[in-house]
Amino acid sequence: GNSVTQMEGPVTLSEEAFLTINCTYTATGYPSLFWYVQYPGEGLQLLLKATKADDKGSNKGFEATYRKETTSFHLEKGSVQVSDSAVYFCALSSRSGGGADGLTFGKGTHLIIQP
Amino acid sequence: DADVTQTPRNRITKTGKRIMLECSQTKGHDRMYWYRQDPGLGLRLIYYSFDVKDINKGEISDGYSVSRQAQAKFSLSLESAIPNQTALYFCATSEARKNTEAFFGQGTRLTVV
Questions:
Q1: Among the four residues A24, A64, B4, B5, which has the most C-beta atoms within 10 Å?
Q2: Is A101 in a helix, a strand, or coil?
Q3: Cβ atoms of residues B79 and B20 within 8 Å
Q4: Which of A4, A30, A44 best tests the B interface by mutation, with the highest count of B CBs <10 A?
């Protein structure tokens, strides 16, 4: 079946630091890949996505590139802000398995940005 | 107004009680989902529905039931709540096409005492 593995948290960084949150996946077929963000007390919001190999998703200064050869979709941001503090989830969607076209999620990474 | 609305937002109930969580959406999506979020476990799929007549069990359906009353409404029931069902519950919707993203409600925080 499908699975997503992302780095455990919490990840604590200083403001303006460079961010990388690693995500690797196992899936049959050709999945689409997503990063969702959950701010305190809120639901999940789509941050960015990529639907095929070598695609780069980007939004709000965050980027992630779909790497089929390494089955990875690492999230990066060049200069984080306190307002980026949240829980980040890597997820995949594949018609071939896993949640019957629902999303398969990683366990989430809690990011804390200190001023 | 939110596209995906969950009620209630917070609920405390006693062990053995029946409780229903409700979800409604204005996105016009055919597909609806119920997920459960627990610390360190991410989100796990409880039930999903592709249309009003199509309901399916997810990864962790034991102890839960659902009803798809209309395209826009999908409710989750705990017939006899137990403490390990204490969690944050999310409803989500998606379009009926391949590899599309899901849209989430704000969540319902359920505590079973």
A1: A64
A2: helix
A3: no
A4: A44
Residues 6+ apart with CB under 8 A from B97: none
CB contact under 8 A, B42 and A105: yes
pLDDT for residue A98: 39
**Three-state SS sequence of chain B:** CCCEEEECCEEEECCCCCEEEEEEECCCCCEEEEEEEECCCEEEEEEEEEECCEEEECCCCCCEEEEEEECCEEEEEECCCCHHHCEEEEEEEECCCCCCCCEECCCEEEEEC
Q: Does A103 contact B98 at a Cβ distance shorter than 8 Å?
A: no
B90 and A101: CB-CB below 8 Å?
Answer: no
Give A95's pLDDT tier (boundaries 50, 70, 90): low
> Mind listing the pLDDT tens digit for each residue in B31-55?
999 999 998 888 899 999 988 999 9
Strands A104-105 and B73-78: unpaired
Surface-to-core class of residue A114, CB atoms within 10 Å of its CB (0-12 exposed, 13-18 middle, 19+ buried): exposed
Q: Is the pLDDT of residue A46 over 80?
A: yes
CB–CB contact B106 A43 (8 Å) = yes
Q: How confident is the model at residue A72 (pLDDT cuts 50, 70, 90)?
A: very high
Flag whether pLDDT at A101 surpasses 70.
no
Residue owning tokens 């102890």: B63
